[in-house]
Amino acid sequence: MFQYQMPEGMRPATLEERRKFYAEEFQLTKVALWLHKRRGKTKFAVIIGRHTKIFPEEYKDDAETTIIIDEYKDLADARRQILEFLPEAAYYDRNVYGEKDHKIGQELAFDLDPENISCPIHGTLADKMKRHQGLSFCPIELDMVKDQAVRLFEFLEKQFSKLRMVYSGRGFHLHILDEEAYSLTTKKRTLIAAEVKANGFEIDEWVTTGEMRLIRLPYSLHGMVSRIALPLEKGEIEKFNPIVDERCIPAFVKGKPTSS
Questions:
Q1: How far apart are alpha carbons 222 and 47 in whole angstroms?
Q2: In this predicted model, what pLDDT tens digit does every residue of 217-243 receive, in sequence order?
Q3: What is the 8-class DSSP label of residue 25?
Q4: What is the CATH number of domain 15-247?
Q5: What single DSSP character describes residue 23?
Q6: Residue ranges of the domains in the chain?
Q7: What does each C-alpha distance from 137 to 23, 144, 255 come to in angstroms?
């Protein structure tokens, strides 16, 4: 049974709902547009059922494993493989690879998740972990992390010029697409992460430093909450509400009860 508490209307997608989304609703043209400026071939990855414990029986032994998809002919073939696994989450690799799969750079990104917010009702992440609710979040935390995302965007604009925001399904990702950011050293990324933390932002440092190189694929399904990862313009963020915004609600949720 799914143990985490989330805002009303957010709940895990079933295997059939995942299949329906990736077969009928996953927008490859928009994915291609997001990835089109990346150098070299993009690697994808999926996690089948680590948090939801929902997975095809034949993949029971690999349900919590990160599976890399790096051999595919085109995006349609990559989708075919995603459909094979019916994952709760799909990602792309931020690394840039040269000849013989040698890493030559990495996209810089910042990850803001609602469970990291200290909630006036539910307490700190440590408090939630003690209750075995480390991935739970409420509408208050969602609003608070959205406010952090807006302020972090404005903070990073002083240093970078090509920023993109993505609602990840739960929290928010900020992608830095400045050319020079791809070649930042691990030491420099660590300093940037420390500076951001020192200014009061609750980021996942592993993402920014590069230790965690995977990031959620825009337009994919966040199977834990039944929401679509959605790129947003800066001016949209303050009024954005993923609980009711139809752009990030998959068709299988619309017009039907959302209780699991």
A1: 11
A2: 999 999 999 999 999 998 898 899 999
A3: I
A4: 3.90.920.10
A5: I
A6: 15-247
A7: 29, 11, 24
Give me the residue label for tokens 């790096």. Answer: 70
This model's pTM is above 0.90: yes
Contacts of 139 (CB under 8 A, 6+ apart): 7, 243
CA angle 76, 80, 82 (to 5 degrees): 115
* pLDDT one-digit tens code per residue, 58-86: 999 999 999 999 999 999 999 999 999 99
Do residues 115 and 135 make contact, with C-beta atoms less than 8 angstroms apart? yes
pLDDT digit string (tens) for 91-117?
999 999 988 889 999 999 999 999 888
Burial class (CB in 10 A: 0-12, 13-18, 19+), 121: exposed
Side chain identity at residue 6, one-letter code: M
| Residue 132 backbone class (left: φ over 0; alpha: ψ -120 to 50; beta: rest) | left
Cα distances from 45 to residues 28, 97, 98, in angstroms, run 16, 16, 19
Helix ranges (H only) for the chain are 15-20, 28-35, 75-85, 125-130, 139-156, 186-198, 205-209
